[in-house]
Amino acid sequence: MEDNSNRSSFSNRLGFVMAAAGSAVGLGNIWRFPYLAAKYGGGIFLLVYLVLVATFGYTMIMSETALGRMTKKSPVGAFAYFGDRFSLRFGGWINAIIPMLIVPYYSVIGGWVCKYLFAYMQGHVKQLASDTYFTSFIQNGISVELFFLLFIFLTLLIIYMGVQNGIEKVSKIMMPILVVLAFIIAGYSVTRPGAMAGVKYFLIPNFKDFSWMTVVTALGQMFYSLSIAMGILITFGSYMKKDVDIEKSTSQVEIFDTLIAILAGLMIIPAVFAFSGGDAASLGKGPSLMFITLPKVFASMGMGTFAGILFFLLVLLAALTSSIALAESAVSTFEDELGWNRKKSTLLMAAIMIVLGTLSSLGFGPLSSIHILGMDFLDFFDFLTNSVMMPVAAIAICLLILKNVTIEKMIAEVKSTSKFKRKKIYVFILKYLAIPFVAIILISSVLDVF
Ligand code: PFF
């Protein structure tokens, strides 16, 4: 649908909520959130995360969406709208570049999901539950690379054909199924013998598990999961019509995204206690946690093959709607800023995804001897984007509002359609808290690796 400025727009609030939720709910919720929560303190991580979502998350998601709607531009254009200075160009580009660096390694994990889906379809439910299956898979360069390429192919095919309408329709059906299935698996998981200790670990904050890294990691995860500090919501806001309630629609996205993350935590963390003992080593497994723990749950339940197929199919879909949003935002930046056509822009994005993604995909096998700052490639790209670039992008957005746009104009944009119930909190965080807090996080996460 077109509005009078010739820019496409979502037809109504649901259109925005569906698109923003489709981009928000993905591997971040199902794969990344549980392993970080397991590693960084369980209940205390969850508590810090929830506080951050309700404060900084709320402020950023509102700001980006309103900025997009005000300027009707994607990030680079939205910053340039307020002047032609180096600082503004830098702010726009850092927001635009982040998705280009995330989507390659995101596709590697997407490839792992494809592999598991195929393995369940072949009925390998018992083999998948063994402790060594995952490790030997990711060490096998060829197999990992092929599944990674398959995932990229699926993402780019959909983007190139422009059939987002199709995928939106599919995700409208699949998302509710994912929620129902997540409830069933979580219900099964928390009732396994020994799982209660995991439920407690995940839901009850224990201050002795708190460390500063809990806050640092929770902030990065919040950016990642809500797709903020990476220009996406500026772009989505630019497609939002002038009569949509910004506060209500962004709150719905936040609530839905957080619900899925909590459900994923309940599927995975109690199972770590029930099946792997719940000691520090099994909780600290990192990126492999979902792939090691859930197969044990599936192998122990009736209809495990069916559950495995359905689960990995739904995760694949959630991952695809997110990788499409990530790659699409990069493609549209190339179209707008380099003046390239869609085909050329898609090809450039494909090249970036293949080159950078291959480093991550081979980083556990043939390239495993190479480390950057002590990290394998996948961890490095994850660290660079989440812990370094996103805080910088978030600071750039706050500075843009404080110095160029003005808070008054932001309030007017939001108020044109919403009551703006939490205006005081919004203004307070934006004016006094956001920049120093995010700067401290940024410095400490950088210091942590040196
Ligand atoms: N929010 C997504 C997730 O949690 O998996 C990741 C992501 C998707 C980030 C799309 C940015 C984006 F544009």
From TrEMBL:
Its main location: membrane. Belongs to the sodium:neurotransmitter symporter (SNF) (TC 2.A.22) family. GO terms for molecular function: symporter activity. Keywords: Membrane, Symport, Transmembrane, Transmembrane helix, Transport. This is Transporter. The keyword Membrane applies. It is a multi-pass membrane protein. Pfam families: SNF. GO terms for cellular component: membrane. The chain crosses the membrane at residues 12-31, 43-63, 93-118, 138-161, 173-190, 210-234, 255-277, 297-326, 347-368, 388-405, 425-450. It comes from Absicoccus porci. The keyword Ligase does not apply. InterPro entries: Na/ntran_symport, SNS_sf, YocR/YhdH-like. The lineage of its organism: Bacteria, Bacillati, Bacillota, Erysipelotrichia, Erysipelotrichales. NCBIfam families: Na_transp. It is found in: Membrane.
